[in-house]
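Summary for the lay section of the report: proteins are chains of building blocks that fold into shapes. Here we show the chain for F-box domain-containing protein and then a coded description of the shape we predicted for it.
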Amino acid sequence: MNSSLQLGPLFPLWLALAVVCNLLTFKDKLNSLMAMRLRRKHKIQSNAEEDVDDSASSTLLDLPDLPIDIILSKLSPQTLAVAASVCKELREKCSADHMWQPHVQGKWGAIAGDSAFEEWKHNCKGLTNSHVNPSRSEDPSPPCKSRIIWPLSCMWSPWEKSPAYLPQKMDGISNAYMKWYATLETGTYWFSAQIYNREHGHAGFLLSCYDAELCYDRQTDTFKARYPPHGSCSPFLEEGISWDRVRKPPVSTTAHELYRSFSLKDLRPDDHIEVQWRRNKRFPYGWWYGVVGHLTVCDKDSRYCNCHLDDMVWLEFNQYPPESRWRRTGLQRNMHTEKGDDTEGFYAGVRKLSLDEASSWMRMWPTEPLE
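The coded shape description reads as follows.
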């Protein structure tokens, strides 16, 4: 019994020691687990920071060429011009002809044709040969930085000041469409075009279209026109011309040349046409709107009409009253010559119009018949 009393307290002491050892072991494992979780969390944060740094150091130029071209093609002309001044690499991309040709065609294509563009390039080459040293080429663009601040919006207009339009090479014009757009936008160049209803819609020129030299006025979003002298009259300057009164010349014939008509044999009644007309031999031709009429003996029934087989084609100008001497005239289908006199003027070449061209004329139809 004494021995049992002596051994009794040893068992609880052993049990207590075992519990303490287990607790210490669990604490070590817990500390190890916490340390592992902290290291993993720190690693994740470090990777995230590295990803942020990598994304912050990437630039637009790190993209392939196709995505860059797609992005740049969505920019407005003003923003594209600003982007071209960021660095040399972007200037080469932003000033490329394939970037600016759609902008030129979209805004100026209907009034400034290929002939005006070629004439401007010819003038630029002449100025280059006279004033620019082709062996000297300066690049004002700053070197491309590792991080580019991309202009999301145009805070200023690059057209406020006239850029340098003169090309740097004698054998051609680099970035021609960008410079051509800037030239037209700033109004520093007079280009050839045609004006509907010249001289502010003067009654003597209604439903006519005359050659002129134009320049754009950005302040009023209109055009100025210089008309060549008519006879003894001095050149006339007209301002405030709206966009809908301007068109590019449909043919290459000048205002003093007879247009060679190749559609006279194909003209039928009710076709829309333009005909060259001038007051006398000293005046330039203007294009006047009209329609093809019927013969006087025709009942105008399309089922039995043979007017298109006659040697004479009759042109009608329905903006004039029936009794007017300007209402109707006839031309020989097989003769490409000028017809008329100093009393009624001289008629020359005839153009058959498309529906779009005819609709442009109809928008300007006078509210009352002309006298």
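Put simply, here is one thing we learned. Residues 10-57 form the longest helix (48 residues).
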